[in-house]
Design a protein that fits this description.
The protein is of the alpha/beta class. The protein has 4 helices and 6 strands, in the order αβαβαββαββ. A 6-stranded mixed beta sheet has the order 3-2-1-4-5-6. Helix 4 links the parallel strand 4 and strand 5.
Length: about 160
């Protein structure tokens, strides 16, 4: 059976839409699991190895978060930026190219670091950027590992929002 070009394009478009919806739902569920498991309720989330940006976008669960995606691959950075812009999330979610093995943050700033592959970044470097009580959620050998940075005894807990 031979299909006309408009019919073929319509079917192809429908299949692409269904696949994207399924992928987005899977990323949404993964982001929910990450946020539930880590217990992080707001602040700066860093997604190392952000790929196409889908999971990065879904980590923005509400307005109490800012999300920064990092990737060493320039093509991934371009794709992720396009995806974030298509979702109208730019500003609350940003994407940058990661160069080297140093994370581009001051000490004690980040609330959550998520990485399926941490690459050449050391555990010490991740701990450097995490705020006290911040969480590193890193996949290692097929298993996700949660590490919470301790709070030094000489730092009191701030009880006020903002």
């Amino acid at each position: 059976m031979k299909y006309s070009k408009p019919t073929f394009n319509a079917v192809l478009g429908l299949l692409t839409t269904l696949l994207l919806c399924h992928t987005t739902q899977a990323q949404r569920r993964q982001a929910e699991r990450i946020l539930d498991t880590t217990g992080v309720k707001g602040g700066l989330i860093v997604h190392v190895g952000c790929g196409n940006g889908e999971l990065t976008a879904e980590l923005l669960a509400n307005d109490s978060y800012l999300v920064h995606g990092l990737d060493t691959n320039a093509a991934n950075v371009v794709r992720a930026r396009k995806y974030i812009n298509s979702k109208k999330l730019y500003g609350k979610v940003t994407i940058s190219k990661l160069t080297g093995s140093r994370l581009p943050y001051v000490d004690n700033l980040v609330n959550l670091v998520v990485a399926e592959d941490i690459g050449g970044i050391s555990t010490g470097e991740v701990m450097r950027v995490l705020a006290p009580n911040g969480v590193a959620y890193i996949r290692n050998g097929g298993q996700w590992e949660k590490t919470v940075k301790g709070r030094p005894d000489n730092i009191a807990e701030w009880t006020h929002y903002l």
